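lol forgot to send this yesterday, sorry. struct tokens for the thing we talked abt
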């Protein structure tokens, strides 16, 4: 078992497979991109699978593939199939901006993908372009429907709420849950990377988000999607097919029940989204050494809570670089 110094059992790994992206979301990546990782530093699919194979006997059960944008790395379905073959892995999820889901959903499902989180900051085409700063004809309803039709589920839509930018769509997003079995989650904007200036003025606290949801009618606490294992708290409208969730990195802490670690695209095991708590696995892996001692070394350094809570926000990196 992998248990950290605070007694938290680790059973969930988020794997970033690329630091690159076809979007340039205002809150995540500068328009000109970031200094990309050298190709040779990026783990091959065989190397990622080997790390998972070595973590599995220690209690790893669930995996999420993320980035950057994971769907732009070639042969994603091949990786999913390889991870599916590691017998202890019960659940494989994907975080994506959804642009490529209409063309890829069925192939990913056939390879063994269980569920998907899709980023969804607006339903208005002009606004999608303004936030993502790329014109890729993205439509969140089309992307989520493609995933649903392919049999992927549960489907979660992640909305980063920004005051004055998309907060007037909170009710529109919540309304989707009446007729679709989708889980719409509102995320508090976090001050990361070079885009810190965008943030504090633009953070909409969750209490305010829920007030705007309630303009559509009463909501009641809900258990959320099956197999959910993250920091969201869920609500639902009576008789709605889906739920409304809130994720509150800025105003609450869920660190005490954190069950996750992250693998960066260049093979570092990170034990917190924020800060520099990480151990390089790549060199030992490539030298053919067993990794368990490094896993345990990383866990020994997993912090009690993340640095946002201590308001030490100076050194935060873009989420695309750390596998947000
Ligand atoms: N490209 C994929 C996507 O957009 O879903 C996966 C990687 S992305 C870094 C993962 C999640 O981080 C997305 O839901 C995105 O909205 C969120 N994210 C990125 N920067 C953020 C920020 N500054 N505050 C809150 N959420 C952020
Ligand atoms: Fe790309 Fe996701 Fe970051 Fe947007 S949030 S720039 S889609 S990695």
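and heres what i got for the seq, position by position
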């Amino acid at each position: 078992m992998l248990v950290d110094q605070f007694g938290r059992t680790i059973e969930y790994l988020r794997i970033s497979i690329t630091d690159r992206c076809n979007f340039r979301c205002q809150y995540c990546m500068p328009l000109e991109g970031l200094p990309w990782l050298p190709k040779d530093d990026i783990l091959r699919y065989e190397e990622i699978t080997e790390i998972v194979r070595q973590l599995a006997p220690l209690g790893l059960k669930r995996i999420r593939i993320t980035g950057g944008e994971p769907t732009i790395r070639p042969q994603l379905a091949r990786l999913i199939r390889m991870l599916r073959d590691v017998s202890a892995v019960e659940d494989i999820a994907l975080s994506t901006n959804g642009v490529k889901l209409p063309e890829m959903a069925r192939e990913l499902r056939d390879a063994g993908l269980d569920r998907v989180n899709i980023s969804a900051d607006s339903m208005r085409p002009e606004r999608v372009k303004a936030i993502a700063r790329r014109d890729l004809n993205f439509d969140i309803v089309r992307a989520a429907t493609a995933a649903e039709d392919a049999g992927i589920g549960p489907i979660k839509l992640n909305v980063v709420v920004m005051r004055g930018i998309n907060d007037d769509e909170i009710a529109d997003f919540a309304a989707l849950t009446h007729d679709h079995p989708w889980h719409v989650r509102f995320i508090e904007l976090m001050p990361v990377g070079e885009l810190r200036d965008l943030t504090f003025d633009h953070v909409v606290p969750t209490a305010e988000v829920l007030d705007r949801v309630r303009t559509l009618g009463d909501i009641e606490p809900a258990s959320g999607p099956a197999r959910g294992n993250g920091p969201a708290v869920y609500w639902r409208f009576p008789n709605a097919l889906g739920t409304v969730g809130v994720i509150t990195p800025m105003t609450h802490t869920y660190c005490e029940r954190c069950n996750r670690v992250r693998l960066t695209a260049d093979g570092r095991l990170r034990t917190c989204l924020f800060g520099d708590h990480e151990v390089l696995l790549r060199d030992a892996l490539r030298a053919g050494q067993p990794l368990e001692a490094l896993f345990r070394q990383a866990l020994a350094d997993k912090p009690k809570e993340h640095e946002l809570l201590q308001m030490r926000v100076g050194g935060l990196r873009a989420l695309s670089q750390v596998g947000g």
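The mean pLDDT is 90. anyway ping me if u want another try
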